[in-house]
Design brief:
The structure is a single chain. By secondary structure, this protein is of the alpha+beta class. It has 3 domains: 120 residues, Butyryl-Coa Dehydrogenase, subunit A, domain 1 (Orthogonal Bundle), CATH 1.10.540.10; 100 residues, Butyryl-CoA Dehydrogenase, subunit A, domain 2, CATH 2.40.110; 147 residues, Butyryl-CoA Dehydrogenase, subunit A, domain 3. Helices cover 53% and strands 12% of the residues. The protein is built from 18 helices and 9 strands. The radius of gyration is 29 Å and the shape is elongated. Bound molecules: flavin-adenine dinucleotide.
C-alpha cells in the first residue's frame, strides 16, 4: 500500500528527474522515440507504468534491501518452551559460536577432538539441567536435553556426540545400572565434567544384532571378573576416564555391565582412522585381553539386557534431535548463501528452483522439530515407547539426509568445501543415519508395533 506522501513524492517532477539513470535513458533513446513514449505514458495502466519506470531506472534505491535473517524455527516452536529453556538454548548457541565454530574445521581435518572445550563447557553446567545428583532426571529433562543437542548440532554434530555419549549413554549406564555407592562415586564427577565416560556395546562382529550376538565375555574369578573381546566405534574412549563395557557371562549367558577404568591392564584403545563423518569425535577400537575388573566395578543394578535396552531407549530421542539440529544448521547456511551468491546477475535465492530447495528443507526441519518436541514430552511424561523413539529416529535421520543434500546442492561446488560449513553437516549426517539403530532396524521396531507382526529375522 503506498501512502499519500509516497504518492506525492512519486509525482514530483524534480524528484523524478533526480532519479533518472542517464545511461539507461541513452540506451532507451536508441530503441524508441522518447517523445512519443512520454506522450503515451499519460494513458498507460499501472503495469505498463512500472515497466517504463524500470526501463528509465526510476525508483531504484542504491541501498540494498535488507533481507530477513535465516531462521529455521519458522513456526516459533522455541517460544512454546519455558523461558529457562529458551535461555539455555541461547547460552549453548553462544558457546558454539564462540568456542567451537572458530576451531572446528581444523579439528575435523585432523580427525581430533578439541579436549580443551571440556573446560570451557564446564561453566555452562549442562548436565545438571538434565540430571539430579542421584541419577534421577529433572522435570522436562528430555526436552531440555533435546534443545542442548539441537543448538550444538546446528554448528557441529561432533560436539553434541561428545555430550550425548558422556551425558547420555555413559551417565545413564551408571544412573540406571549402578549401586548407590557407584552413583556416589561417579555421578558428581560426571556432572562436573571432571570424569568423562564412554559406552562400549558395539563389537566388530555385532552391530544391529548386538543384543543376541554379544561376543565379549566376562568370567567370575575370585573377587573380580575377567573380560575378553573387542568393542568397535566407542566414542570418547580415546580420552575417557572410564568406559562402560557390556559383556556376556560365560557361566549363565547374562548380559553384565562393567566400569572399566582407563589404564586398566589388558584394556587397550586404538583410535579409528579415516572416517568420512563425525571426524571430530574420537571413536575407539577397544581390545579387552584378559582384562581384570574388581567386582566393585561391576554395575550392580543391571538386570541383563533389559537395562541396556532402557539406556538406549533413553538416548535414542537424543539422536533424533541430532538430525533436527544438523538439518537446521544446514538450512540456515543455505538460505544465507542463496541471499548472497549471485549468478546471471541475480542472487541465486531469486531463482524459483533454489527457493523450491529452501522451502522443501524448511518443511523438513519444521516437521522434524515438531516431532521431536512431542517425542521428548512423551518421554518426560513416561509414556514414550520404543517404537515412538524408533519412528522419530528413522524419520529425522531420513529427512536430515535429504535436507543436508539439498543444502549442499544450493552451494554448488562450494558445498564440498569445509570452509563453507555445509559440507561437514552433509558428511556428519551419514553417521547419524547409521548409529543408535540403523534405518532398517528402527523401521522393523515400528513395523512390529503397528502390525503386531515381527519381521525381524
Ligand atoms: C560414528 C559412530 C559412532 C558410534 N558410537 C558408538 C558408541 O559410542 N558406542 C557403541 O557401542 N556403538 C557406537 N556406534 C555403533 C553403532 O551403534 C552401530 O554402527 C550401529 O548399531 C550399526 O551396526 P553396524 O555398523 O555393525 O551395522 P550392521 O549391523 O552390520 O548393519 C549393516 C546393514 O545391515 C542392515 N541390517 C542388519 N540387520 C538387519 C535386519 N535384521 N534386517 C534388515 N536389515 C538389517 C543394517 O540396517 C545396515 O544397513 C557408533 C557408530 C558410528 C558409525
Amino acid at each position: 500500500m503506498t501512502t499519500s506522501a509516497e504518492r506525492a513524492q512519486a509525482s514530483d517532477p524534480t524528484q523524478l528527474l533526480s532519479q533518472l539513470d542517464a545511461a539507461k535513458l541513452a540506451a532507451l533513446a536508441g530503441k524508441v522515440d522518447l517523445a512519443a513514449l512520454l506522450k503515451a505514458a499519460a494513458g498507460m495502466n499501472d503495469a505498463q507504468l512500472r515497466q517504463l519506470s524500470k526501463a528509465l531506472g526510476l525508483g531504484q534505491s542504491s541501498k540494498p534491501r535488507e533481507l530477513p535473517a535465516p531462521d529455521a524455527d519458522f513456526f516459533s516452536l522455541m517460544e512454546t518452551l519455558s523461558l529457562e529453556q529458551q535461555e539455555l538454548a541461547a547460552q549453548v548457541r553462544a558457546f558454539m559460536h564462540a568456542e567451537v565454530a572458530p576451531i572446528m574445521n581444523g579439528y575435523w581435518s585432523r580427525d581430533e577432538f578439541p579436549r580443551q572445550i571440556i573446560d570451557s563447557l564446564r561453566p555452562l553446567d549442562l548436565l545438571r539441567r538434565v540430571w539430579n545428583e542421584d541419577g534421577t532426571r529433572k522435570p522436562g529433562a528430555t526436552v531440555t536435553e533435546g534443545l542442548i543437542i539441537l543448538e550444538a548440532c546446528k554448528v557441529d554434530v561432533s560436539t553434541a556426540v561428545f555430550f550425548g555419549v558422556h551425558a547420555g549413554l555413559a551417565f545413564a549406564s551408571v544412573a540406571l545400572g549402578g549401586s548407590a555407592e557407584q552413583k556416589a562415586e561417579w555421578l558428581p564427577k560426571m556432572l562436573d565434567l571432571q570424569a568423562i565416560g564412554a559406552f562400549g556395546l558395539t563389537e566388530p562382529e555385532g552391530g544391529s544384532q548386538v543384543s543376541q550376538g554379544l561376543r565379549t565375555t566376562c568370567r567370575r574369578d575370585g573377587d573380580g571378573w575377567v573380560l575378553s573381546g573387542q568393542k568397535k566405534w566407542i566414542g570418547n574412549s580415546t580420552f575417557s576416564d572410564f568406559t562402560v563395557i557390556w559383556a556376556r557371562d560365560v557361566n549363565n549367558g547374562e548380559v553384565r555391565g562393567f566400569i572399566v577404568r582407563a589404564g586398566t591392564p589388558g584394556y587397550a584403545v586404538e583410535k579409528i582412522q579415516g572416517k568420512i563423518a563425525l571426524r571430530i569425535v574420537e571413536n575407539g577400537l577397544i581390545t579387552l585381553d584378559e582384562c581384570r575388573v574388581p567386582e566393585s566395578d561391576r554395575l550392580q543394578a543391571v538386570q541383563g539386557w533389559r537395562t541396556t535396552a532402557d539406556i538406549l531407549k533413553l538416548t535414542r530421542a537424543g539422536v533424533a534431535w541430532q538430525g533436527v539440529g544438523c538439518a537446521m544448521g544446514a538450512y540456515e547456511l543455505a538460505v544465507k548463501y542463496a541471499q548472497e551468491r549471485t549468478q546471471f546477475g541475480k542472487r541465486i535465492g531469486e531463482f524459483q528452483l533454489i527457493q523450491n530447495h529452501l522451502v522443501h528443507m524448511l518443511g523438513n526441519v519444521t516437521s522434524m522439530f515438531t516431532l521431536c518436541l512431542r517425542l521428548s514430552e512423551m518421554a518426560d511424561q513416561g509414556v514414550m515407547q520404543d517404537e515412538h523413539a524408533a519412528l522419530a529416529k528413522v524419520f529425522t535421520a531420513a529427512r536430515c539426509r535429504e535436507t543436508v543434500a539439498l543444502a549442499r546442492e544450493t552451494f554448488g561446488g562450494n558445498g564440498i568445501l569445509l570452509e563453507y560449513g555445509v559440507a561437514k553437516h552433509f558428511a556428519d549426517t551419514e553417521a547419524i543415519y547409521s548409529y543408535e539403530g540403523t534405518n532398517e532396524i528402527n523401521t522393523l521396531v515400528v513395523g512390529r508395533a503397528i502390525t503386531g507382526l515381527s519381521a525381524f529375522v
